[in-house]
Each structure stands twice: as C-alpha cells, then as structure tokens.
Write a structure and sequence with these properties.
Radius of gyration: 28 Å
CATH topology of the largest domain: Immunoglobulin-like
Low-confidence stretches: 142-153
Number of helices: 1
Strand content: over 45%
Structural class: mainly beta
Number of strands: 19
Order of helices and strands: EEEEEHEEEEEEEEEEEEEE
Largest sheet: 4 strands, antiparallel
Mean pLDDT: 82
CATH architecture of the largest domain: Sandwich
Length: about 240
C-alpha cells in the first residue's frame, strides 16, 4: 500500500509494485511510503524522500559591452532561485572569478583581450541536481569609452592599414598601421553578421606600428578590420580571410 505526500496524486498502481504519480506545479518536497499488506499484519514502512530540482535562473544582471569589460573588474548578479542551495558560475578564458562562486553575486576580472563569442553562464543547484544553464552573451562595442591621449581629431588620411600577415597556421596575424602622428585608436574585427568578435585599444606612434593579434578563436571566414577614434568615428577599414 502506497502513501503519497501532499500536492501529488496517485494516477495508477495502488496495490502493486509500480505506481504512476502526478505532481502539482507547486510541489517542492515530500516523502513517499510503501508497506506490504498481509493477511495477519502489514510490514513496516519503507520511505523515500523526493525533492524538486531548482528552477532556471531568470536573468543575469551586469555589463556586457566588450569595451566596458576589457581590463576591468565587474559584478554580475542574479535573483534568488526557489529551492536552490547554490549556484555554479562559468566564465570564459578571458576572465577570472574574483569572488562569489556559489552565490547570487559574482565578481569577475577581465583581461585586455575579449572574444566576441565569450559568454557568462550560471545555473542553480541543490541536492537533486542542477537547473538548465542561463547564458549572457557579450555585445559589440557601442562606443569607445577610454580616455585618449595624443591626437584625438584623426582623419582617414592620417592613419592607414599598411598590410596584414597571417601566421603559417593562421592562429595569429600581424597588422601594420601607418600614422602621420602619435595617436590612440581602437581596432576591432567584425564577422559577416556584423558582430564584433574582437576589440582592443592601441597607441600608434608616428610612422609604422605593428600589432600582433590572436586569431586562434576565430572560425574560418571573412572579417572586417575597423579602426576608429575614441569618439567612435571610423578612420579606416580593411578585410581579411582566415
């Protein structure tokens, strides 16, 4: 004979070794009991505790702009999830967790190079397991927000991409910039969907400046190089194929 906890309904199987049960939407936890029934007496109860896995984290709050993340320590927060006893955060290789693993508030330190395909992930956990993973994707640089030094009124005639040279295994690329004056600019890579997959800020000196960029994380395809000022004004562009 089976005894069920509240917020459950026995669908089939009473009096047998196997039962079917329907759980109410607000079921959290309960204990199922079963005993064998004899002619003279019943056996002792055998009990099984059943608990609900936590729900999915509803949202992740925090900055997502690649330009805002580069080289900074930022904070992400999530709402408390009912029935959760902990939280597992997953950060990309460009980031290091400073504090907050297993809590609703996470501090992350980012490096200077962030991939456009990087993401922040988190899921709620308890003794029954984990929820599905909530993902926060990074967004392209909407505007450049660093303090520029040197010339800030750059024109397209003052900066040019002289050339770029892929390594033999196409895991990196050297880009040669030519500038008529000392200046500070941002250069970014965009895929054919218009998504920013790389962003970095560099200081150019008068003449030729060579910069090496990691391409190991990029998929095969065509990309646009965009060079712009701190005011988000495009100075020059070019294309390359990996």
């Amino acid at each position: 004979m089976w005894t069920l906890p509240s917020k459950t309904t026995l669908v089939s199987g009473q009096g047998t070794k196997t039962i079917g049960v329907r759980f109410d939407s607000d079921f959290n936890a309960g204990t199922f009991r079963v005993e064998s029934v004899g002619v003279c007496a019943n056996s002792k109860f055998r009990a099984l505790g059943v608990y609900q896995s936590p729900g999915v984290v509803s949202m992740i709050n925090g900055p997502t702009s690649i330009c805002e993340l580069q080289g900074n320590t930022v904070t992400y927060t999530i709402p408390t999830v009912p029935d959760a006893t902990g939280y597992v955060w997953m950060v990309p290789n460009s980031a290091t967790i400073v504090s907050g693993q297993n809590s609703t508030t996470l501090q992350v330190q980012y490096g200077n190079v962030i991939n456009g395909t990087d993401k922040i992930r988190v899921r709620a956990t308890n003794s029954c397991g984990g929820s599905m993973i909530r993902v926060m994707e990074f967004s392209p640089c909407a505007s450049s927000n660093f303090m520029a030094t040197g010339n800030t009124s750059i024109t397209s005639s003052e900066i040019q991409i002289n050339g770029f040279y892929l390594s033999e295994n196409e895991s990196s690329m050297n880009i040669s910039f030519e500038s008529v004056t000392d200046s500070q600019v941002i250069y970014e890579f965009y895929n054919l969907l218009g998504q920013c997959v790389f962003s970095d800020q560099i200081s150019l000196t008068q003449g030729i400046t060579s910069v090496k960029s990691d391409l190991s994380y990029l998929q095969t395809g065509m990309y646009q190089i965009v060079v712009k000022t701190h005011e988000d004004r495009v100075v020059t562009t070019s294309y390359f194929i990996k």
